[in-house]
Amino acid sequence: MSNAIRIDGKAKAAELSEQITAETAALKEQHGLQPGLAVVIIGEDPASQVYVRNKGKRAEGCGFYSVQHSLDADVAQDAVLELIDELNNDDRIHGILVQLPLPDHLDEQTITQSISPAKDVDGFHFINIGKLTSGNVADAFVPCTPAGCMLMIEDHLGADLSGLKAVVIGRSNIVGKPMGALLLKANATVTTCHSRTPDLPGVVRDADIVVAAVGRPNMVTGEWIKPGAVVIDVGINRVEVEVDGETRSKLTGDVDYDSACEVAKAVTPVPGGVGPMTITMLMFNTLRAARLSAGLES
Ligand code: NAD
Q1: Which three-class secondary structure state does DSSP give residue 85?
Q2: For residue 215, how far is its CA from the centre of ligand 1 (angstroms)?
């Protein structure tokens, strides 16, 4: 029988969104300042279109000024850099996000590094990565997905993770590496695993906290989980399932939710776990960028 807590990311994100909306209203009233988010999308990737539309809607819902720049898939890199330069110098805009992945002819690093670190609400600029990895977390824009994961971990284990072992599966710059840095800052003993890690199940079995960010459906099963562990499933995988003789597509995580729930203390579901928190942390970062721009936060 499963005793694990289902970590409700949707409910937590809704609660946080309400706070952000209230703080935005207060910022407008008291300081005449409206947070502004600019989202740049290049090309027609259907998943990216959905993500970007949701980000814009959510920004408006929070009371932000929200703009979307849609560029053709064959846009020249100089034109992208010119647009980012304009946004860097636009006082109405406090957060800039370029939706990834980019078309092959564009250089992701050149583009992400051209965003002003003060408007880098995705936390991909080297200045923000440097602040995060050197432990100056309070001063950095932290990438949204690991920032959201961390809030859910804190809810179940507290802010100080001293004495706890954490295993992060995946070493991407967007999730795995910043996740490891945040856990380390919170005093966990952190192991980062990846596709070349030997005996992954054995390593995971030792962990009080497991964060899976791989992109392999149901890879982490209950047999890998230490009893009482907190399990955060970042993976988003589309799989085909048979329902009443029909093939349907559904989203699933990197963790086999049911078997993990047999052993763990708490597990995030997919969907409804990490996903909703990610977009909310983008709003959190944008509000913070606006407050910082006006000297209202240090
Ligand atoms: P990525 O492809 O950049 O990185 C995947 C990582 O998994 C790599 O470091 C790789 O070494 C590791 N890996 C691959 N196969 C492995 C294996 N067999 N054993 C151990 N490690 C293995 O992906 P990413 O951008 O970090 O995203 C990971 C997953 O999280 C994807 O499913 C993605 O869709 C999802 N994601 C979700 C959110 C969200 O908001 N919920 C945000 C970002 C990414």
Answers
A1: helix
A2: 4
| Residues near 236 by beta carbon (within 8 Å), at least 6 away in sequence | 215, 251, 253, 270, 271, 275
| CA atoms in the 13 A half-sphere facing the CB of 146 | 30
- Ligand 1: distance of its center to the CA of 216 in Å? 8
232 Cβ below 6 A of ligand 1 = no
Ligand 1 pocket residue status of 178, Cβ below 6 Å: no
Is the CATH number 3.30.1700.10 carried by domain 144-275? no
Kindly state the tokens that stand for 291: 């407050």
Residues marked active site are found at 55, 99, 122
Residue carrying the six token digits 């392999």: 216
CA gap 82, 76 in Å, rounded:
10
- Regarding pTM above 0.85, the answer is yes
Q: What is the pLDDT of residues 47-87, one digit of tens each?
A: 999 999 999 999 999 999 999 999 999 999 999 999 999 99
Beta carbons of 34 and 65 less than 8 angstroms apart: yes
pLDDT value at residue 258: 97
30-116 under CATH 1.10.260.40, yes or no: no
pLDDT tens readout for residues 85-121: 999 999 999 999 999 999 999 999 999 999 999 999 9
Asked if 30-116 and 144-275 have one fold, the answer is yes
Q: Which tens digits make up the pLDDT trace of 139-181?
A: 999 999 999 999 999 999 999 999 999 999 999 999 999 999 9
Burial class (CB in 10 A: 0-12, 13-18, 19+), 3: exposed
